[in-house]
């Protein structure tokens, strides 16, 4: 099936913003795809590698940092799940923001997230290329970047079930790796692994104690942990192309709590229990450091392989997510109309546009790594917090509207509404304030604020023009109606 969404009606202030998507996109994702995307989406390269900086800053208290940021993410996912189960849409929170707040909000949330995903694709391609070039020293990184971009662009140009299959197996490998790590680590903590002795609480209370760098170290660790929870939104985007989106979203959201607790908080707790937090090897990769400590042969290369899988999985998912977000925006009249064509149930033009932007970002990293590419990274540094803010505000408005107009759609309900929704907004605001304390994060916040402001202004201008155009059309048609 192919077609082009009705882009004229997409700008109307009275239309349903998710109506334009459902008739064109395919529905080839199965429940097993969504289940594994939800499981694997929480396990990214940021966990395996990026957590080292948080551990070095916060020491053993990094467990508290991950638990606090994980709690915030769970609340955000619950709010997003409530809205996505009630109104499944490939634009996810962008559609919800438009329905609840206005077209300008959907425009801003959608395009800032699209930019975030495209830049993430570039970073992941560079990371994956660096690993493979390390294995094959005679090959240049740009060659592997080109190969990975071509492979995953091609995958996403095919039917959506191909994306689902790739992501299913990538996620299965990541889940298997983290489960194996948790089993080995728990056995070692209990002193049941051959050749190891239980460390007890020595690494948790020694070397400066549980808070070796005080509250300041905990704050740095908290900021590092917040941005490690990437990929969770993809399942609500993918659910719109499944056979039963409501069931898929509901199941994914209801299992989010134990996934975050087990994979993130649990594995980080194993790391800081087994090895000293100030060990030099932690910064280069805490999970590899634990495997080396346990005497696992070729531990560094084993973790490199796992990180490579995580990076390729994220590339695949982010190209998919960016293309669907862009298609949703175009279908709602918030983007270039020529990108709206759908062929075989796939928005191939937005796939190509998203991949092209990602590849262009890679080129920027080669040409101007310390200027233009650094600016691009800073512009999306706090983008996920902007998105979370839109989700919380949208849910506050949408929940009351659903309770009044369609309570049967509340398949998933936010806990203790509205108290926990307000608590989530306060949590997002607190993280933004904490970002002002650190030089690097302060710069990211300034750049992201500038991008958000620019998109908001552009969205408001478009919204007012659309409203003015609708008013003119209404006044022009009035005499004709009177003549009848």
From TrEMBL:
It comes from the Bacteria. The keyword Membrane applies. The chain crosses the membrane at residues 34-56, 62-80, 111-136, 142-160, 172-194, 214-235, 256-275, 295-315, 350-368, 374-393, 414-436, 442-461. InterPro entries: AA-permease/SLC12A_dom, Amino_acid_permease_CS. Residues 1-26 are annotated as: Disordered. Keywords: Amino-acid transport, Membrane, Transmembrane, Transmembrane helix, Transport. The keyword Transmembrane helix applies. Residues 13-24 have a biased composition (Basic and acidic residues). Residues 33-436 form the Amino acid permease/ SLC12A domain. It is found in: Membrane. It is a multi-pass membrane protein. This is Amino acid permease.
